[in-house]
Amino acid sequence: MFKDHAIGESDETFDVIVVGSGMSGGYAAKEFCEKGFRTLVIERGRLVEHRQDYVGENKGPWQFPNRTKVERSLVERDYPIQQKCYAFHDGTKHFFGNDAELPYSTEDGTGFDWIRANQLGGKSVLWHRQSYRFNRWDFEANAADGLGEDWPVRYDDLAPWYDAVETFVGISGNDDDLEQLPSSVSQPAFEMTSPERDIQQRLAKAFPDRPMIMSRCAHLTKPTTLQIEQGRVRCQARNECQKGCSFGAYFSSLSATLPAAAKTDRLSIAANSVVHSLIYDDVSNRVRGVRVIDNDTLETREYFARVVFLCASTLGSTQVMLNSKSRRFPNGIANSSGVLGHYLMDHNYNAGAAGFIDGFEDEYYSGRRPTGIYIPNFRYEPSRYHEKYQRGFAYAGEASRQDWRSHSGEAGFGADYKQRLTQAGRWRFSLLAQGEMLPRFENQISLHPTLKDKWGIPQLHINCTWSDNEIRMMEDAAEGGAEMLRKIGLQEVTSWMTIHDNNPGLAIHEVGTARMGRDPKTSVLNGFNQCHDVPNLFVTDGSAFTSSAVVNPSLTFMAFTARAADYAAKEMGNRRL
Amino acid sequence: MVDSALTRRTALRGLGTGIVWLSYPGLTTALGKQTADGGLLFDQREIRVLTMLVDAVLPETDTPGGVALGVPAFIDAQLPACHSEAEQASARDLVSAVALASRERFNKPAEKLSGTERVTLLSALDKGQQPFSASQMWAFRALKRLMAFGYFTSETGATEVLTYQAVPGGFKGSIPYASVGTSWGSLAYY
Q1: How far is CA A365 from CA A219, A274, A399, A417, B135, in A?
Q2: Among residues A9, A16, A237, A262, which one has the least CA distance to residue A120?
Q3: Is the interface score ipTM higher than 0.90?
């Protein structure tokens, strides 16, 4: 289906070029096509067709040569970084970038794990689908505590766009009526297991200000007519999402936004097109289009449009901007402020706690729930901050019964041992901390002065470290999580902290580096994701963030993208663009 | 700890079934990549010991044993394909240690041990007691994990020994365990 929209070289001047086809790019394409604009999506990787290219789907582990594990020699050669992602295995590896072909460097003494998904659909194929709105303090925190540039946007500006995006995407969850986690337009939530319901009640008594809810995720549980017309149906609870889902039950660009764009017949797709830089005209102070290198042939071609939306992922979009140099912008386009590349953030998933909950031996669950429980950030306003650090964190978790994966390493052998492996074991409840990372000028991406990739594009050089604030937050998340679990009566409670072992990057929530702001001297983008310096250039992926907040960012990428597309469309209608 | 008299008895119960040495599937399916006199990682003598270990850890009961489900061949293929040199060496060292202990203690090859002799030897190994070391105990645990992985990710292990839902059709948070009767063989991540 997408191949019917694929183009090679083209002389056409499109209304809009969208660079990237993932979470943000897919949404931009849908919005512009539906508003009547001829839209070109540029994707550096190959075309992926919904359903037919999900080659890992519907396979049992015995149908993979190494039972879903990836051959060591292949991992060492092509995926030394990608294999750190929990979702990397033999059924998904074709949706991860090849590290050998995608080099980048890191500052001595630092590390950053950059997870790549360079194909049509981008990381929307691989994402974990957790979907939450920012709350009002997330937009106000920088101004309140002074730790970052004030967002030029407030919750009420974005709320209607959350409504629209959630209605289209399909979010399952409850209306939890929490000020720290505004409710979404939602479809029915997944069920909790019996121990989870019990723990929820125990926590409500012991920690009334730390409510535990069912998580919200982009899975259809009661699809709308529009979703059914798109060929999307109710989630079947396989939890094998990253292989691709032919049911279209989880949201991705391939299942939802790109089909919506394609339906208008105004969509063109230039795949295998690695954007080298933007074409900038300093007389008119406008970008005219993009210069791309063919992924396979390495030939150069150009595409033209009235407006360009960069949706190439945080590091990808900023790399393109840094590499778009001109007399007016010698250090990267729209970078008169000098902050382009700075304030890189990820989320900090580096602490947890777990314990056993006795009883419930007669209880089990059916299906593989693709999500878990959630304890929203309970330090969501400055008056609730911990004395040892700023901002806060959430816990994600679940209760499930142990199985042979944990029992097989225990003592024993023979018939009893084997019988034990066939049975469900004790219920274990775990919490994983998801912390905010502060925006810091020192956390920077830049172009390497000499090293280039195979397309001749300067490699990114990344200098990113955790700060003491992140370390102290994880210490508290580990200790505090264990304390919560002990207080509600769990057994054999353990906790852990991995911040000294893990580089930033692995939450795969990289944001910042082309931040928004009110002041063109200290920010790259205005409140509509429009470059202060170059009016027809927009950046609507995570690059625009001025703080990471606590919640998973994809829903907010899409809400900002839809809002920016609406603004740009009006500006084009008024002939200001 | 599970090393009770009961465990010993039930472990023994699985040993009366006999092992068909010639049915080792890796020898016929992996031609071209085999070592000169055996499988992909282990030589033929080591494979006989490995097969004994698999049979002792995952014996045939009312469900198939690990040998019948091809676990020795799986381990011989999986270790070199997906595990580090150190893990491979550790597994081979363990197999050699079992062979040596068998000769020294019972004066016969490990695969010829009687059921009682096997239990004696493996009980010591499982606890890291003489003649085995603590590190060999941990190597045995790692090998047992790999055996279980091979067993329960085989089609029979996942779908017949356990209960498998390819397409569950939705999630229910509470069902009676008795309505399933085993742990789920269908997992999101292995």
Answers
A1: 19, 46, 11, 24, 38
A2: A262
A3: yes
Taking the CA of residue B36 and the nearest CA in chain A, the distance in Å comes to 22
Q: Rounded CA gap, A59 and B155, in Å?
A: 11
Distance from CA of B7 to the nearest CA of A (A): 6
**Which of B58, B183, B190 is facing A67, going by the closest CB pair?**
B190
Q: pLDDT for A15-60, tens place per residue?
A: 999 999 999 999 999 999 999 999 999 999 999 999 999 999 999 9
The tens digit of pLDDT for each residue in B62-90 reads 999 999 999 999 999 999 999 999 999 99
The interaxial angle of helices B115-127 and B134-152, nearest 10 deg, is: 110
Whether B57 contacts B66, CB under 8 Å: yes
Chain A residues with beta carbon closer than 8 angstroms to that of B17: none
CB contact under 8 A, B168 and A237: yes
SS3 B30: coil
Residues in chain B: 190
Walking along chain B (190 residues) 10 residues at a time, the average pLDDT comes out as 37 37 39 64 97 98 98 98 98 98 97 97 97 98 98 98 98 98 96
Q: Do B11 and A419 touch (CB under 8 A)?
A: no
Chain B positions touching A419 (Cβ under 8 A) are 10, 61
- What's the token pair of residue A289? 């289009």
Measure the CA–CA gap between A242 and A240, rounded to whole angstroms: 6
Please say whether the beta carbons of A22 and A122 come within 8 A.
Answer: yes
| Chosen from B183, B189, B190 to mutate, greatest number of chain A CBs within 10 A | B183
Compute the nearest-CA separation of B140 from chain A (Å). Answer: 9
Cis peptide before B131, with omega less than 30 degrees from 0?
yes
